Amino acid sequence: MFKALDVEAQTMNRVKLGYFRLCLQREIVQCEQEIATLRSSVRLMTSRERGDAARQLSDLHVHLMQLEDALDRVNDGSYGWCLRCGSAIDPTLLEWLPYLALCESCSASAPPHLRQGG
Ligand SMILES: [Zn+2]
User: Fold this and answer.
1) Which one of 5, 59, 69, 101 has the fewest CB atoms closer than 10 angstroms to its CB?
2) Is the pLDDT of residue 76 over 50?
3) CATH of the domain at 108
4) In this predicted structure, what is the pLDDT of residue 118?
5) Ligand 1 mean position to 10 CA, how many Å?
6) Helix 47-76 to helix 4-41 angle, to the nearest 10 degrees?
């Protein structure tokens, strides 16, 4: 049995999830474009620049993976909850870094690719 307030809270939640889904989809498109641009310009680069580009590309691939994982979590309903301890991730942090998979305290001890701000 739901009270009116609960229904409203759930609706808000769906709206928020939709919002984060859009953010993530937009970032995925951006990330894919950056990868494509970088790839197409590699043949015009010096070997030193190619080294930098390769590092950038692998960073972009990691980021793309984080975004796609986050989008999966939006779709399966686990988005916004810490993967390690299950507590809610601060929504203001999610607005800033929508791919976050861990809460603040867990990210401190997580492997680098799951940490905040990285
Ligand atoms: Zn946690």
Assistant:
1) 5
2) yes
3) 1.20.120.910
4) 43
5) 23
6) 160
